[in-house]
Write a structure and sequence with these properties.
47% of the residues lie in helices and 9% in strands. It has four domains: 124 residues, no CATH class; 84 residues, no CATH class; 169 residues, no CATH class; 118 residues, no CATH class. By secondary structure, it is α+β, with helices and mostly antiparallel strands.
């Protein structure tokens, strides 16, 4: 009831029930965000029924929208569980249930796994599930909680020439597709506007393109014995019966879509899962007809964790080299495929759509990692197998996406791409040989700068055995020529602080100054522990460095004796100096 006493309306969206364990608690159903169901039968696992039932209960507790939103997550844990239970089943003393799992058994299982990404996945996924069980002993829980080192990656970035060749190949393939589709789109627009003479060759071609745009097929013969062949009058103007003469006029092929994906990777550094999930970008409503187009691109990356799946980028198309130009071309090459898919499945909002030469791809909606990967003759996104096939066709050794993303983010953009700075440094930058090699001259230059700075801040005053009667006494030294200071003030004289006397060639230091300077050195060391590091470095580091230099010149014995000779006058003057009371 509402506060006014009216009955609250029922929800219009269906309520998603949490996943349940069925089949006497040994079969778990996982519903993903789209409502599709994956079934995991724990009766097929080896081991005792009690152990399988415990694992099923832990597994089902995670098959909820707040934990696992896709079947990829549940499958990611299912396969390591199969390996873990198979290991327990062949032990001399099999584990009957999780409360019997010992630290020794877990350690044996852990050591049996290879030092690879697969081994790391096996250990961490099983550990995550087992730690949810409150019946584990303290020793077993402590063993499970021990840190697992991530194996070193063997994946490195592409060399410059190799990556340039990949991008050039992708640009060549996609450019040909873009020119083909936009040229046929202009012809279709002319036919629909009625400017072509009816019955002419150009008009017949436009009619065939219109049928292709509406149905995904050019007009074909339905008579017995001729079924599936393009009608002769249209085959003549199209140029033949082959795909490059018919449906490829308005639709991308599978391999051309891979080329588009490679260009998106090279331009923005997105990984393949993000590219596959790209929704159709929307142009800003206030861009105007004559102004640059600004696209709002929605990115989706589920590995970032709940609450951080989505982010948006604004990409502007204001010229050939602008970041939004590729988005414009992608929209132009997929416009007909997106329209055809919308008729087959209203509400589908995918950017990368291609057409297959086989009809249909599958009688059922295809799904990949919990998402529909095609409908009818149209496919969505890029699979790993297709990426490898494209690379092979173009003469490359491996798929361009994983190594290409590493190349773009570490060598070209040099900043995180949908990762934290820590992940970017640990996984991408520090692990890449090219980054380490490129860092050598940078580190050397920085070291040289440090040395130059240190040399610039050495003690520059002149040491004397006794005072010169013509010198003027200051807090830290005697000034030999105040009229010709390296730091002249607006009205003449010296404008530097008394600490800068230690860096002035006009300064003279003699034994009467030793105790006061030793006390100043000690006081600056104390300040270092009391101030923020940045503040101390800004105000006092150079003076402290010069006093360190002076201490080295005089020797430890002289410096120690000077500290014992510090007078109250020395302490008072140094306190005034550090408090800023003697600043010019």
């Amino acid at each position: 009831m509402s506060r006014r006493g009216r009955t609250a309306p029922l929800p219009t969206t269906p309520v998603r029930r949490p996943p349940v364990a069925v089949g006497d608690g040994l079969v778990v159903e996982h519903r993903d965000r789209t409502g599709a169901v994956a079934v995991y039968d724990f009766r097929t696992l080896p081991g005792s029924e009690a152990l399988r039932r415990s694992l099923a209960r832990l597994f089902a507790a995670r098959c909820v929208p707040s934990r696992w939103t896709s079947h990829h997550s549940s499958r990611y844990f299912w396969h390591p569980l199969q390996a873990f239970t198979a290991y327990l089943a062949v032990l001399d003393t099999p584990v009957g249930d999780l409360d019997e799992l010992t630290a020794g058994v877990w350690t044996q299982w852990r050591l049996s796994q290879p030092n690879t990404r697969l081994g790391y996945r096996q250990i961490t996924t099983v550990r995550g599930l087992l730690l949810d069980d409150a019946r584990l002993s303290a020793a077993a829980r402590e063993a499970l909680a021990r840190r697992v080192l991530f194996p070193g990656t063997k994946e490195v970035s592409f060399q410059g020439a190799e990556f340039d060749a990949i991008v050039m190949a992708a640009r060549r393939v996609f450019r040909a597709a873009h020119l083909r589709i936009t040229d046929n789109a202009r012809h279709l627009a002319q036919w629909r506007s009625g400017v072509l003479a009816r019955g002419s060759e150009a008009w017949l071609l436009g009619e065939a393109l219109d049928c292709l745009a509406r149905t995904g097929e050019v007009p074909r013969d339905t008579r017995a014995g001729q079924r599936g062949r393009v009608l002769a009058r249209y085959a003549r103007v199209l140029g033949g019966q082959k795909p490059e003469h018919t449906w490829q006029r308005l639709f991308l092929t599978r391999m051309e879509t891979v080329a588009l994906g490679v260009l998106l990777l090279a331009e923005h550094g997105w990984n393949l899962s993000v590219i596959n999930r790209l929704r159709v970008p929307r142009a800003a409503p206030d861009a105007g007809s004559d102004g640059p187009r600004i696209y709002r691109v929605e990115l989706e990356k589920h590995k970032r964790g709940a609450g951080r799946y989505f982010e948006t980028r604004n990409l502007t198309d204001d010229g050939a080299a602008s970041p939004g130009r590729l988005i414009t071309q992608a929209l132009e090459t997929t416009v007909f495929a997106r329209a055809a898919v919308h008729v087959l499945s209203p509400g589908t909002d995918r950017l990368l759509i291609w057409r297959s030469g086989k009809a249909p791809l599958d009688d059922r909606p295809q799904r990949e990692a919990g998402r529909r990967s095609g409908i009818g003759v149209f496919g969505f996104g890029i699979s790993g197998v297709t990426a490898h096939r494209w690379a092979t066709q173009q003469g490359f050794a491996c798929s361009p996406f994983r190594r290409g993303r590493r190349t773009v983010n570490t060598l070209h953009r040099r900043e995180p791409g949908q990762n934290s700075q820590a992940t970017h440094d640990r996984v991408y930058a520090l692990a890449d040989p090219q980054v380490r090699q490129a860092a050598i001259p940078v580190i050397a230059e920085a070291a040289e700068a440090v040395v130059a700075t240190a040399r610039a801040t050495v003690f520059a005053a002149e040491l004397r055995t006794e005072a010169d009667p013509g010198d003027q006494s200051t807090v830290t030294a005697d000034c030999h020529d105040v009229a010709n200071s390296p730091y002249p003030g607006p009205g003449g004289g010296c404008s530097a602080s008394f600490l800068m006397c230690l860096a002035c060639p006009n300064a003279r230091i003699h034994p009467a100054h030793y105790s006061r300077l030793a006390h100043l050195h000690h006081a600056l060391g104390n300040l270092r522990t009391a101030l923020e590091p940045g503040e101390w470095q800004r105000q006092w580091e150079e003076g402290h460095t010069r006093l360190e230099h002076l201490k080295g010149q005089l020797g430890a014995a002289v410096w120690t004796r000077a500290l014992t000779d510090v007078s109250d006058t020395d302490r008072h003057l140094i306190a005034l100096l550090l408090n800023g009371d003697l600043d010019p």
